[in-house]
Amino acid sequence: MNHRRHFLRSATACIGLPFLDSLGFRRFASASAPAPAPSPKRMIFLGFGWGVTKETWFPDVEKTGSEWKLSEGLAPLQRHKADISVIQNLENQYNNEAHWGSTFYLTGANRYAEPGKSFSNTISADQVAADQFGAETRFTSMQLGSADAEKDGHGPGLSLAWNRQGKPVAGWDTPVVAFHRLFSEDNTPLTQRQAMLKQRRSILDTVMGDAKSVGRGLSQTDTEKLDEYLQSIRDIEIRISKEEQWLEVPKKQPTNPVEEPSDSLKGWQEVEVMYSLLVAALQVDATRVITYRQPGGTSFLQSLNQTLTGHNMSHYSPGARQQVSELRDRKQSELLAGLLDKLKATKEPDGSSLFDHVSLSYGSNINSIHYLTNCPAIVSGGGAGVQLGQHIVADKGTPLCNLWLTLLQGSGVDVESHGDSTGTVPELQG
Q1: Hey, is 289 helix, strand or coil?
Q2: Coil/strand/helix, residue 185
Q3: Which of 166, 49, 159 is nearest to 108 (CA)?
Q4: Distance between CA atoms of 327 and 92, rounded to whole angstroms?
Q5: Is 181 in the same domain as 192?
Q6: Residue with more model confidence, 236 or 419
Q7: Partner of 247 at 20 to 30 A CA spacing, among 71, 206, 236, 286?
C-alpha cells in the first residue's frame, strides 16, 4: 500500500485520498488522528551496598525544604537539584545486621518473625508494584544485579526483589545477559520452543501430582515446607504461561539501539551500561518495574584505580580511606545524574519524557560503617507525583517502608500498607 496515501473510514466505506498539502490535509489528519494512549507508570528501585560517607553525603539538617544545598557527595547532581528530593532519618527497625542490608531493603521485614526460624522475609515493594503493572509487559518485573554484588557488602540474596513467600527473585547479573534477554531474538524454531515449554509443563504437572500425594499426614512444619514448594511450582507455571504469551511477539528495539556490551565491564562502567539498558527496557515497554542491586565495593573501587577493598573503605576513618569513600560517593552521584539525563531525553509518544512517568528511588539500607539508622534515600521522577527539589528531615526512626508506601500509592498501586510502614511521608506529598 502506498505509504503516502491516507484513508477516511466509515462503517461502509474506505475511501483513499491523495496527500493534499495545499488543502491543509496535514492539519486535518493531525486533528482527526486518535490521541496517543496515556503513558504507563513505571517504578525503578536502585540499591547499593556499603552505605555512604555520612560526613559528606547528607545535606545540612538545618537547611530543609527547597532552600537546601547539595552536599559534597551529591554535587554531581546539581543540574538535577530541582528534580530530586533527599529524605533523612528513614530506617528499617528490624534490620540489626549491617551485612544483610539489601536483603530487607525493600521489604522492611523482621528476619526473626517466624518462631523457630533464623531467617524469614516478606514481599518487596517492587513486587507489590509488579502485581499491578506487570500484566501487559513481556517481563512482569526486571531484576538487575551484579556478579560482584555478593562480595560488595549487600549480604545474602540474589536481587533486591522478594516474592510474596519471602523468597528471592532471581535476576540478570551482567549487562551482557540483560542485553540478550531484552533485545536478542531467539533463533530456535517456534515449534521447538513450543515443544520445550510443553515439556516443562508436563514435568511440572508430574511434580505437582507427586507433591500433593505426600501431603497427607505431615506435621505442621512439613506441611508449611510443602506449601512453599507447591507455591514455587505455581510461580514457575505462571512464568511459563508468560513465555507462551510472548512466544510469537518480536522484541521491540529502542529508538537509539543499544550496542551489545562487553563481557569485561566492571565497576562504574558496568553500572553505566546497566543504566542505559534500564532506560531502553522502559522505552520499549519490556517491563514497568525494575530493581537494580548494583556494585559499589571492591570492583567499583578498582574501576576508580583504588586498591582498597569495599570492606576497608566502608570502615573508614579520617584520612585516605575516607577520601576513597568520598570519591566513590561522587562517582555514584555522577552516574545517577547520567541516568536522569537519559530518562529526561527519552521521549514518549505524547511528547512527554520517560522521566515524567517514572518513580525512581536510590539509596542503601546502610548509613555507613555499621550504622543502620538514617538510610541514604533519594527520590526522583514524575511518576509518583511527589514533591521534588526538597530536602526532608523526617522524625527519627521513620520507617523506610513509609517511603515505599508513598511511592507505591503515588504511582497508583492499590495498597494500604507495606512492611513495617506507619503511614506515608507527608512532606513528599505536598
Answers
A1: strand
A2: coil
A3: 166
A4: 27
A5: no
A6: 419
A7: 206
Q: Which three cell numbers stand for residue 361?
A: 528511588
Q: Cα–Cα–Cα angle for 180, 182, 186, nearest 5°? A: 60
Same domain, residue pair 292 and 203: no
**Measured between alpha carbons, how far is 106 from 291 in angstroms, rounded to an integer?**
10
DSSP assignment string, 141-176: -EEE--TTSGGGTT-S-SSS-B-TTS-BPP-B-SHH
Question: pLDDT (tens digit, 9 = 90+) per residue, 296-336?
Answer: 889 999 999 999 998 899 899 999 999 999 999 999 999 99
3-state secondary structure of 393: strand
Q: Are 133 and 214 members of one domain?
A: no
Length of the chain: 430
Strands, E, within 276-325: which ranges?
289-294
Do 202 and 67 share a structural domain? no
The upper half-sphere exposure of residue 260, i.e. CA atoms within 13 Å in the direction of its Cβ, equals 7
Q: How far is it, in rounded angstroms, from Cα 236 to Cα 104?
A: 24
This prediction's pTM: 0.86
- From residue 222, how far is each of 96, 116, 215, 227, 231 by CA, in Å? 29, 13, 9, 9, 14
User: What are the tens digits of pLDDT across the range 134-179?
Assistant: 999 999 999 999 877 555 444 444 689 999 999 999 889 999 999 9
Quick one: 422 and 273 in the same domain? Answer: yes
Q: Based on the structure, what is the number of domains in the chain?
A: 3
- Between CA 90 and CA 365 the distance in angstroms is 9
Claim to verify: residue 146 and residue 132 sit in the same structural domain: yes
Return phi, psi of residue 194, to 5°.
Answer: -65, -40
Q: Judge if 28 and 173 occupy the same domain.
A: no
Give the per-residue pLDDT at 9. Answer: 36
pLDDT of residue 210 exceeding 80: no
Give the whole-angstrom CA distance, residue 323 versus residue 53.
9
Domain that holds residue 7: 1-33
| Distance separating alpha carbons of residues 181 and 277, to the nearest angstrom | 11
